[in-house]
Amino acid sequence: MPNFIHHIAYKAMKLSRLTFYLVLTMGVLPLQAQKKLNPDSLLQLIPNMVDTQKMLAYYDICRYYVGANKNKSIEAAQAALTIAERKNDDKWIARCLNVLFSTLNIHGESKNNQVLAEKALQHAIKSKSKTTILEAYESLANTYGMKSMWDKAIEYSDQCLLFATEIKDTVGLLNAYNMLALCNLELNRAKLAIQYHQNSVVLSQKIGRVYELGRAYAGLAEVNMKQGNWQEAMLNAKKGAESFKKMNYPIGQAQSLVFAGAALLQLHQLDECRLICKEILSLLDEAGNDAVRGDAHNILGYVEMEEGRYGLATEHFKKAEKEARKSTNYKLLKDIYRGMEILSALQNNFEAARDFHHQFQVVSDSSLSQQIVSNITNYQVKYETAEKEKLLAEEQEKKSKWILGSIIALLLLTGLFFYQRKQQQMQKNQARLEAEKSRLEAELEHREANRLREVDKIKSTFFANISHEIRTPLSLIIGPLEQMINGSFKGDQQKYYRIMHKNGKRLLELVNQLLLLSKLESGRMKLTGSFGNIHNLIKAIVNSFENLADRRNIQIDIDCPDEEGKCCFDRDAVEKIMANLLSNAIKFSNDGGSIFVTIRPMTGQTIQIEVMDTGIGISEEQIPSLFERFSKTTHSELQPGSGLGLALVKELSELHGGGVTVKSKEGEGSVFTVTMRVDRSFFDNHQFTNQTVENEASTFETLVSDTASISEGSKKLNPQKIILVVEDNADVRTYIKDQLQGNYLILEATNGREGLEVAMMQVPDIIITDIMMPELDGLSLCKLIKKHPLLSHIPVIMLTSKTEEADKISGLEAGADDFLTKPFLATELVLKIKNWLTTRIRLQEKYLSPLNPFSPDALQEENMDAKFIQNVRDTIQLNLDDEGFSVVELSQKVGFSRSQLHRKLSALTGKGPNEIIRSMRLENAKQLLEQKAGNVSEIAYRCGFNSPAYFIKCYKDQYGTTPGDVL
Question: Hey, what domains does the chain have and what are their CATH numbers?
Answer without folding.
Answer: 9-268 (1.25.40.10), 292-383 (no CATH), 525-715 (3.30.565.10), 720-824 (3.40.50.2300), 849-966 (1.10.10.60)
